[in-house]
């Protein structure tokens, strides 16, 4: 009885061993496939990054990212000569955006409104569909809005933060313009105006938080700081202001005035009166 049952147990043991071996082989195959998928995804993302790298500008060729568009030290946005948009991308996952848009007024063509936007931060690709995701540094974004017929000549300068999602994008050589072209498509599939490669490597401000604060809602009245966060000396401030003097036509509203005179006028007239009184006292003595 016992001897006759040995072949049965042997067969069961062999079947069990074969089943375990098959499961181990299947797990090894799945692990190899996962590694291949990860490698392929990494390689695919690197290909996308290589294609995006550079500074791209719209057809007006007047709007570019970098220090020529925004000065974070003096909080100055330099108005380009023509509307347009520009994006820059680095190979290590950073982006910068410069945007100058003019919106016509159908009811009064002489009263268009305009907005100038600066943002920078990091970017990544969504897993599965390779959508382009832009994540700006929340405290660094700036927006200048001008509505000359309704704002009494005073533009609105505020913080700006907007996460952008592009459903897909395409980079190809434009035979008509003779350069690489970047086609971006909004989250709903609507196309953005074509962008053309202007610089590679890209022209950008430092890829760090330029205006570190405790909160993005902090007051805009703050001390000017350099890119390392240290206070600027008076010499550096004067140099920076002289460099930027003729780069923008923006005017700082005069907060304090005396007898309807602006601050500099008060200083000039005060100096002249003091000089006259001092000279008179000297001559009379």
Automatic annotation (TrEMBL):
DNA repair in keyword set: no
GO MF annotation list: unfolded protein binding
InterPro entries tied to this protein: Rot1
Membrane topology reported for the UniProt record: Single-pass type I membrane protein
Cellular compartments annotated: Endoplasmic reticulum membrane
Signal sequence interval, chain numbering: 1-22
Transmembrane segments: 266-284
Function comment: Required for normal levels of the cell wall 1,6-beta-glucan. Involved in a protein folding machinery chaperoning proteins acting in various physiological processes including cell wall synthesis and lysis of autophagic bodies.
Family that this chain belongs to: Belongs to the ROT1 family.
Protein name per its UniProtKB record: Protein ROT1
């Amino acid at each position: 009885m016992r001897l006759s049952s040995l072949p049965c147990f042997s067969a069961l043991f062999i079947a069990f061993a074969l089943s375990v071996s098959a499961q181990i082989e299947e797990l090894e195959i799945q692990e190899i496939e996962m590694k291949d998928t990860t490698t392929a995804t990494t390689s695919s993302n690197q290909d996308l990054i290589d294609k995006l790298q550079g500074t791209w500008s719209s057809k007006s060729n007047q709007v570019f990212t970098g220090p020529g568009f925004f000065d974070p030290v003096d909080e100055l946005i330099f108005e380009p000569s023509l509307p347009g948009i520009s994006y820059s991308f680095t190979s290590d996952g950073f982006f910068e955006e410069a945007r100058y848009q003019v919106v016509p007024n159908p009811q009064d063509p002489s009263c268009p409104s305009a907005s100038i936007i600066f943002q920078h931060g990091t970017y990544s690709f969504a897993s599965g569909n390779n959508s382009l995701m832009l994540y700006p540094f929340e405290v660094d974004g700036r927006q200048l809005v001008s509505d000359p017929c309704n704002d009494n000549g005073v533009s609105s300068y505020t913080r700006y933060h907007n996460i952008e999602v592009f459903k897909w994008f395409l980079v190809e050589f434009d035979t008509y313009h003779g350069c690489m072209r970047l086609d971006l498509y909004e989250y709903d599939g609507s196309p953005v105006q074509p962008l053309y490669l202007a610089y590679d490597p890209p022209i950008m401000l430092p890829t760090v938080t330029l205006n570190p604060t405790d909160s993005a809602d902090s007051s805009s009245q703050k001390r000017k700081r350099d890119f390392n966060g240290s206070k600027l000396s008076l010499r550096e401030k004067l140099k920076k202001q002289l460099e930027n003097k003729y780069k923008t036509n923006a005017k700082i509203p005069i907060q304090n005035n005396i007898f309807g005179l602006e601050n500099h006028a008060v200083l000039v007239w005060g100096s002249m009166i003091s000089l006259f009184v001092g000279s008179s006292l000297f001559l009379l003595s």
